[in-house]
Here is the input.
Amino acid sequence: MKKNGYPSAGLHGRVVHDIGARIVSGQIPPGDTLPSEGELAETYGASRSAIREAVKVLAAKGLVEPRRRSGTRVRPREAWNLLDPDILGWHSPEALIPSFRRDLVELRWAIEPAAAELAARRSQPEDRALIQEALDEMEKAGEDPRAFYSADVRFHLAVFAASRNALIERLSTILGPLLTMSFQAQARRNRAFPLAVGDHRAVYEAIAAGDARAARKAMQFIMNQSARELEAASPEAAIAADVPA
Here is the structure.
């Protein structure tokens, strides 16, 4: 999966990622003011110009608002660009607030069944081969969470590509990190990995058969399972009750 986030190489990139991660994690909460430009330069061993550029990057992501005289203040969460790949990556799955977990499920519900239906109608042999390859990797992963989630993300991204919808495919740069976050938060608490493989195989078989209705229903089943697993990880979110059965 291609990553479109801000480069982390070099001192300037490390400053962006370190401050950004501290803001998103709540270590620097909304309303707080960042240390002065001089203090940040000393902390990171960077020039003032590098610090200014890093702050500009964070401001473009909606995280901070530089103000003359009063300093750079962290903006409310509502102002953040939550679909920015870096901001998504700076979230810890364990620390996701309930409303964001719910929003994540609802976004997937809105897009993924439709993508599966389109894939059944439009996919080409090479598209289906990529879905099959990811499915095989899920099966080979067994109970290894890291390998399983990696293959699981590839499966869903392959379905997006197989939809042959340019906008859905472009959304992959956003949905990829969201899927990774979702799977890590779910932690498959309620169900064994082999059962999840079977659910995904049903999606693949419907797409391969060109059965659009079955593909949509099979993906809807996965969405409901994801909602239940996320709810198990965060009961206060009450996610599963808000998505269609």
